[in-house]
Amino acid sequence: MNFTCLIVETRDKVGLITLNRPKQLNALSDVLMDELAEALTAFDRDAGIGAVVLTGSDKAFAAGADIAGMKDLGWMDAYQGNLISRNWDRVREFRKPLIAAVAGFALGGGCELAMMCDMIFAADNAQFGQPEVKLGILPGAGGTQRLPRAVGKAKAMDMCLTARMMDAQEAERAGLVSRVIPRERLLDEALSAARTMAGFSLPVVMMIKESIQRAFEVPLAEGLLFERRSFHAAFGLADKQEGMAAFLEKRPPNFRNA
Ligand code: CAA
């Protein structure tokens, strides 16, 4: 596929997707989100890919959904066109580890897109926010649900209702991001973490992701049962034999994703 709003590359077992609408600060148009869904689907299907990094520019990860593209839409357009759901949900459905490497602005849908990823690495100039209230709308790609789960009710209410931005340091303290990194090292560190994950057993990595996702969807007892059954299932993998044998024989494991 030819992408107009993305740069899609592979680095060994790692997929790298760069949002590429610099003039619009990577505003997330429908075309961009269609392309992102397409790229992620291809990486999910590619058995040679073990993890993916999603990034933007130094100035903006993404400044939100595309305001120009939404300006003339009415309720029926949004409802019938399934605005947001149709393509954005594909990010949520991606089954391999997905790191958002965020520099600059991650606002509105940009913040929501980062939160759909499994972890956020923030450059020291990153700014997170949900300023939709200033446009006469509300966060519509999960902000009112994922932000309170990440940073708690008080900060989520503050950000969504006053539109104030949160810098990288505050975002790390609040639990929104897992690492803050000097801007010039952001991509290297994200790629390195992705390479690490891609070096483990793919089915095990996928089961860990799926199990942690359950923690946000189901009651504790159900989540624990899901985890236990997945744990038992891992005992059926050759990679479990290999991982444990390698540890005891004091050598690196050679996982075969089986
Ligand atoms: N959609 C479309 N275009 C956008 C955009 C967006 N979300 N954000 C920025 N742009 C465009 C600007 O219109 C401008 O275009 P022109 O050069 O043609 O005028 C260009 O990008 C550069 O932007 P600025 O001149 O505004 O740059 P700045 O450095 O002065 O400010 C900013 C940067 C603070 C991020 C500011 O651009 C801004 O506030 N952007 C909008 C942020 C926003 O409201 N996001 C929420 C969108 S709605 C949403 O996301 C809904 C949802 O939940 C899914």
- The number of E-state strands comes to 10
Order of the strands making up the biggest sheet: 1-2-3-5-7-10
Structural class: alpha/beta
Largest sheet: 6 strands, mixed
**Helicity, in percent?**
40-55%
What is the 3D form?
Answer: globular
Radius of gyration over C-alpha positions, nearest whole angstrom: 19 Å
Kindly report how far apart the N and C termini lie: 30 Å
Which ligands appear in the coordinates?
A: acetoacetyl-coenzyme A
Proportion of strand residues = 15-25%
Order of helices and strands: EEHEEHHHEEHEEHHEHEHHHH
**Count of helical stretches:** 12
Q: Give the rounded overall mean pLDDT.
A: 97
Please mark out the parts with pLDDT under 50 across 5 or more consecutive residues, or reply none: none
List keywords for this structure.
258 residues; alpha/beta; six-stranded mixed sheet; four-stranded mixed sheet; 10 strands; binds acetoacetyl-coenzyme A
